[in-house]
Amino acid sequence: MSTGMTARTSTHPTPMPTSPPPADCLQRWRALCRWWFAAWVLAGLSGCATMAPVDRAAMASTAIGLSKTTTLGRIASGYSPGEDQSGFRLMPLGKFSLDTRVELARRAEVSLDVQYYHLENDETGRWLLRALRDAAERGVRVRLLIDDFYTGGQDELFLALAAHKNVEVRLFNPFCCLRERGQLTRFLASVGDWKRVNHRMHNKLFVADGAMAVIGGRNVANEYFSRSKGDNFIDVDAFAVGFIIAPAQELFDRYWNADVVYPIHAVTRSPQTDEALRRQFEDWTGPEKTPPPDPLPATDILGYGPIADDLDGGRLGLIWAYAYVFADHPDKPFDGEAGGELMETSVTYNVFEELRKAKTELVVSSPYLVPGKDGMALIHELRERQVRVVMMTNSLGSTDEPAVHAGYTRYREPMIDQGVDLYEISSSRVKRNKRLNLFGASLGRLHAKLAVIDRQKIFVGSMNLDPRSATLNTEFGTVIDSPALALELLRVIDIDRLQSAYRVRRSPSGEGLEWLSLEDGNEVVLTEEPDATFWLRLKFKLLVPLVPEALL
Hints:
The chain is α+β, with helices and mostly antiparallel strands. It has two domains: 62-313, Endonuclease, Chain A, CATH 3.30.870.10; 343-551, 2-Layer Sandwich (Endonuclease, Chain A). 35% of the residues lie in helices and 21% in strands. It is built from 19 helices and 22 strands. It has an 18-stranded mixed β-sheet, sandwiched between helices. It has a two-stranded parallel sheet with strand order 5-18. The chain has a two-stranded parallel ribbon with strand order 8-15. α4 (94-107) packs parallel to α5 (123-137), α5 (123-137) packs across α10 (274-285) and α6 (155-162) packs across α10. The radius of gyration is 25 Å and the shape is globular.
């Protein structure tokens, strides 16, 4: 939003020179000037930089469909209630979710199509990349598509993977230069191209042999699969077979062949030969630097065992239902504006249309909850029809994005005033919730993007309820019509909502908020942001007025 300004002529006399400022002030001023000069120079450089031209007709490829000649294909097509139905298994525990991806890679015979926003160079990322490499050496075609936001300093790893036969790596909306200098430097080098690089691909999808897939919100890094010694994320994925696989492959192809996607070799090069890169990959992903994950428990919290047991037996334990998948067009973020109107083809618009159909109850989990005017209008409409609305998000003490939490707090009291049952995940309560051994002593941050509508339909995907998902990022998700899955998902959400979260309400005086929990049968009431230190609360209060909501 622009603001008008009027020039004025001062009637005050010119002030007399004052004594020089202290030396430390001069040093700070000079440092600031050097920073801005560097940014200006880098912006100039970025304005001259262009991506290498690519022959898009020559590089185009499409997904390989389901074949009953493959092991996964035979299992997937062995039984189904109907051609238009899909089978699902929810995966609320990261250990099982990672194992499912790796098992699919190990058993693939024809193709692996893999799409992620963040694939980290840590034990988990390298473990999965090793499984992809091993599949490629068996003759499996591997297509890996990664958003370029988190690849800073990791080009050599992905180049080493791409040096293997049958592997192709592509980057969504890549940064042009200074790629090895870290995230801040890459953005400084793109100051003149900010509008472009601020748009990212947030999709997550893993498809094996056109037969089986993993969809949901998890990226690929230690913290998404309970392997981090510090922070771990609470999330839910879904394993899927059946009708939705072919449409998911079509959506992958739309991105793979998009104009904003580039082969990694068109973006960056290595001074090493392909042979040297392959040796380096072997060293990085070998057992010394990439140890395997810990063994799996016998079952997860829903009673499912490891997917390998089902695959070995040739029959999957699934819940069958009608479902559809959808994704933003890869050009969506470049067509819209931050904080602009929702496009009717967007994932956010279509999810809102499903949520609007709620008649009795809507339960939502979103780590970043900034509903904006469209979200608040939806909440108002639902509450006018007496629909119970339950929302769960991160507390200040558990969020990994304090700036987004600042945007959320602007809507916290208005949502409560509308009658929303609002819950915030507590890091301390997660630590104390030992019964299900979800996170041990590590910090649990909410990352699951879920919705349950009337205990009948569910949404599982990558979309947050915030402006960035609505207009700046691309997203992927599925809506499934299944009371059985809705019951399972509510069970998972309630574990977090009732045992690991605070309920937020207005204080009895109407001024300020209270956070409620039950500890050993006793009600505990807090009057300040839980799990947040004095300094964190102070920094947060200073941050709130400075955060532009449209960019959250």
